[in-house]
Design brief:
The complex is a heterodimer of chains A (224) and B (474). By secondary structure, chain A is mostly helical. Chain A contains eleven helices and no strands. The chains are: A mainly alpha (224), B alpha/beta (474). The structure holds iron/sulfur cluster (2 copies).
């Protein structure tokens, strides 16, 4: 292994990951600086049940009209995110547990997932460019984040699929891109997963507290 | 259905100018609310974009920041908004686009990336009052704050809360539609949305009482005012005093049959709350507090809210938070009260007295932002013989199109009626002859839809059907 690849897949990744972690922590501290409204009403339901249901929403496509009426979109969403997980996992497996890629069918499953995610990513890009409504709301960051993710999938797939005689090229491309990605992510829309728990918890808390979800039977009988 | 003739020019809507005639008049009359700084008026000499930025920083809260940050621009919300569905070729109707008009300012003023590399995320401060006026037209004119898009957003982004946030800041700058200013003025000045004076209020109550006594032949039937120690204090919509006293009469009749001890308050009777629509939490807190303090003063055991979507949401849920007032008394919709009467056998109803097919429209403020979906249906199934659901319904129902104060903003009416095509199609598919809702605001919004799209439907409230099904005791 060349010194470049060794540094790239180890020290550089650790530095980039630490940077990402630090920015995330700062962002979390920042969001907690904003005031949070005190709830002063009697509950008609259970805020906890609301939060649970809201957070589980992602696993229940039938709960939302948008995913219920377009199951293909939901499957694409699941595969796309599975691709992200696979690519991230690869960035740890290759330097620290390469044995996992030998046997057990891990390599072909990861490769299939990454290729599917890559195709879906390209489809998403086409959709974003084609649909006027999406085009209008898209910012350069939306395109850049998507293109970076697509290239991330492509290099990860290449790393898994490339024959040995291709040398270190695919690995260098993958780890260089991973490092770049890690530095860009906290400033891009890719870090939506950092906010996801907040929005879902706030929404679920309201729906649960008000009894839209898990309403207490006693409420209608006795009033609250 | 009406043909395509009503296509609105959206550029014209987005460039509608700021009308300040009412504001100048109010300032000229030295209205107390203006003098106290409660009701804000527009001042062109001020640095309004700068004040806007200050207010953004001051008024943000954690859930708003999360919603402003979390949107991934997936565009799924376009499939759930009646504006976007009715104008599928108009990208400016996409909920995320509307929220983005606020988001881009937030990003430039507060956001991390937006301050570092504004072009990357389309971050942009308002540069002039003209920009703020355009924002006014977006947030007041192209969204009924129904929250349907939130229910269909994978991220749970609260577009309506973002819209309301911007409305509130614009209200602080006096950059609001005339209708919003006028209703806010009336509510600040008189304590109720329609500027009903105490004398008019009391006289209408007397008149309703006399009519009811004559109609029922029962001289003991009463609409008590300011009686202490009752089982509940009844709060109403000023529309019931000004335009629709029938619903007040229905309530009095039902309460009498149920043997209820109840009272109206002399002050603090308005359960509606324009603060919800204008985004002004101070107005919201002022109006809600009036009702809570009235109930406390009268030592009522609970507060009952007549049929009104935004009034219910404001009085039952948001008002306590706006007013910084810890809830002390059970606070419920009159539909829940009626449900209890029927369940306990305190009133008897006969569904055959309402034989026409009835469908139910869920008010957004009750079904998505409140908590009552099963309860009105429980009652309706007992007071009419042919109840049919519209689809979608409950949490997923479409707005009546008149939500968020749009009924008071005449300039946006053509767009509202154009996008009402979605609602009209939904209503027509039920085949119902009676369209029931539990909201005075929805009544007006739906009547507009019914008239505009020439639907053969009568719009009523739950209490109308309950009153029609009442069986008087032997
Ligand atoms: S508001 Fe939600 S549904 Fe709409 S674009 Fe943003 S993330 Fe997607
Ligand atoms: S709140 Fe309702 S009207 Fe406003 S954008 Fe969302 S779906 Fe459309």
């Amino acid at each position: 292994m060349s010194p470049l690849l060794r540094v790239l897949q180890d020290e550089v990744q650790i530095v980039a990951l630490s940077f990402l972690g630090i920015v995330y922590v700062l962002k979390l501290l920042w969001i907690f600086r904003f005031p949070h409204r005190t709830e002063r009403t009697f509950a008609a339901g259970s805020a906890r049940a609301g939060v649970q249901s809201s957070l589980m929403n992602v696993l229940m496509p039938w709960q939302m009209e948008s995913t219920r009426s377009d199951p293909v979109f939901y499957v694409q969403f699941a595969l796309f995110h599975a691709g992200v997980l696979a690519a991230i996992a690869l960035s740890f497996i290759v330097p620290y547990a390469p044995g996992l890629l030998v046997g057990h069918g891990v390599r072909p499953v990861m490769l299939a997932t990454l290729i599917a995610a890559l195709m879906i990513g390209l489809g998403r890009l086409a959709r974003r460019i084609r649909r006027p409504g999406l085009r209008l709301i898209s910012t350069p960051d939306d395109y850049l984040s998507l293109v970076l993710t697509i290239v991330f999938f492509a290099t990860a797939a290449l790393l898994l699929a490339a024959p040995a005689d291709w040398g270190e090229g695919p690995a260098i491309a993958f780890f260089a891109l991973t490092a770049l990605f890690l530095v860009y992510v906290p400033f891009s829309k890719v870090c939506h997963y950092l906010y996801y728990p907040f929005t879902r918890i706030f929404l679920g808390h309201t729906l649960g507290h008000r009894g839209v979800v898990a309403r207490r039977a006693r409420v209608d009988a006795e009033g609250i | 259905m009406r043909p395509e003739e009503d296509r609105v020019d959206i550029d014209r809507i987005l460039s509608l100018p700021l009308e300040t005639g009412s504001q100048e008049k109010a300032a000229g009359q030295s209205l107390p609310s203006v003098g106290r700084g409660d009701l804000m008026t527009y001042d062109a000499a001020q640095n309004n974009p700068g004040r806007f930025a200050d207010l953004v920083r001051r008024k943000l809260n954690r859930s708003l920041v999360a919603s402003l940050e979390a949107c991934v621009h997936c565009g799924l919300c376009a499939d759930s908004c009646h504006y976007a569905l009715a104008r599928p070729d108009d990208p400016r109707m996409v909920p995320a686009y509307k929220a983005d008009q606020v988001r881009r300012m937030y990003k430039r003023i507060v956001g991390w990336t937006g301050r570092l590399v504004p072009g990357l995320v389309h971050a942009k401060r308002p540069a002039s009052d003209e920009d703020l006026n355009r924002l006014k037209n977006v947030v007041f004119g192209t969204c009924s704050a129904c929250r349907r898009c939130t229910m269909n957003c994978p991220m749970g982004v609260e577009n309506a809360a973002i819209v309301r946030f911007a409305r509130g800041i614009l209200a602080d700058l006096g950059i609001v539609p005339e209708g919003v200013f006028n209703v806010s003025r009336d509510q600040w000045e008189s304590g109720n949305q329609m500027g009903v004076s105490e004398q008019d209020y009391l006289e209408t109550i007397d008149w309703v009482k006399e009519e009811l006594q004559a109609e029922t032949g029962d001289p003991s039937i009463d609409l008590p005012v300011d009686v202490e120690g009752c089982d509940f204090m009844y709060t109403i919509n000023p529309r019931e005093v000004k335009f629709d006293p029938r619903s007040l009469a229905n309530a009095a009749k039902i309460f009498k049959l149920a043997g209820e001890s109840w009272t109206l308050p002399r002050w603090g009777w308005d359960q509606t709350n324009f603060g919800l629509f204008s985004g002004d939490d101070r107005l919201g807190g002022f109006v809600a507090r009036n009702a809570y303090e009235a109930a406390e003063r009268l030592k009522a055991k609970r507060i009952v809210i007549s049929e009104c979507g935004h009034g219910y949401r404001s009085t039952r849920w948001e008002g306590y938070n706006w007013a910084g007032y810890d809830q002390k008394l059970p606070t419920e919709s009159v539909v829940v009260t009626i449900q209890r009467y029927i369940r306990e056998g305190r009133i008897t109803v006969d569904p055959s007295r309402n034989p026409d097919p009835v469908t139910f429209h869920d008010s957004c403020n009750i079904a998505r932002s409140g908590d009552l979906i099963a309860q009105p249906r429980w009652v309706l199934r007992r007071v009419c013989s042919d109840f049919r659901e519209m689809h979608p319904n409950g949490r997923e129902n479409y707005c009546c199109t008149g939500g968020s104060g749009l009924l008071s903003m005449a300039e946006y009416r053509p767009l509202r009626l154009e996008v009402a095509r979605i609602k009209a199609e939904q209503l027509k598919a039920t085949g119902a002859k009676v369209l029931c809702t539990m909201c005075h605001n929805c009544i007006d919004g739906l009547n507009d839809v019914v008239k505009h799209y020439r639907l053969d439907m009568k719009v009523v409230q739950v209490m109308d059907l309950v009153a029609g099904a009442l069986v008087a005791p032997e």
